[in-house]
Amino acid sequence: MEHTLVFQSIMSIFIMILIGAILSRTFPFNEDTRRVFISLIVNVAMPCIILSSIFNVKMEENTFGIITAVFWISIFINLIGIFIGWLLAHNYYKGGNKTKEIALLSGIGNTGFIGIPLCAILLGPEGALFAAIFDAGVDFTIWTAGVLLLQQKKQFTYHSLKSMINVPTLSIIIGLVFAYFHVTPPIIIINLTNQLAALAAPVAMFYIGVLLMTLPSAKVQKLGSQALLPIGVKLIILPVVTVLAMHYVPLEIEVKQTIIIQSMMPTLTLASILFAKYAADEDFGAVTTILSTLIALFSIPIMIYLINIFYAI
Description:
Layout (H helix, E strand, L loop, with lengths): L1 H22 L7 H25 L7 H30 L6 H9 L3 H40 L7 H7 L2 H14 L6 H11 L2 H14 L3 H10 L1 H19 L6 H11 L7 H7 L4 H26 L6
Subcellular location: Cell membrane
Pfam family, one: Mem_trans
GO cellular component, one term: plasma membrane
């Protein structure tokens, strides 16, 4: 069952990328169209994904405590992946100019579009709940540590803090406040966030498809070879580290299983959007996303099989 779901989710991604590639023939891809894509995803779709995940959480007596733990563990795992990627890139590509991109691609995964439905199938509604919270931790890492890392000036200044106060970050804060005080928004707001959240994956994949059609094949091959480092960290090293770390965390087995599964997701689909917004190499992000997702078609089932040694899934 899990193998079928992984295959279907990843094939959906590639079909949407193909649609984007076809759409690229119907309009000029310039700075204006690029800004429309980025603004729509960052300021509308991403915040709605965050709010939709939190609004659909059913709170019980000890649920918020577990949610808080999963949220912080998610951030910690993401930061470990980023650090491992940065360390390897700094040593392997000495003098290279992609260290920050490799670091982020090594630690941030596609925990929303692939991870949440996979956990729902394998672990049921409880798995989907904690997978959504893990995804919120990923979002928080992206729009705080990720933004800080991508800044041209590395000093923590007022401008750096202002960059981290963005729409997705504010959405996380608002959503968690609602959850903590058990506030349920009107049904029209819940439905609206659910509908707008569905925009994120398709529009991001369309953007990647359009972007790839503008890249020379020689550049794709060059970037593909450089992408092997972050892909190796994200799909192999980070899941192994997570499995070992979960032995020392006092959580229920279902929560541990969710965290482990989420740690093995392929590279973030929004990588090229994030890089474009902060003047990094968006082409590298797009190529890495596609290769990582393709390899994940084989790596996720293998990793799930191997971690049965430690945890029954």
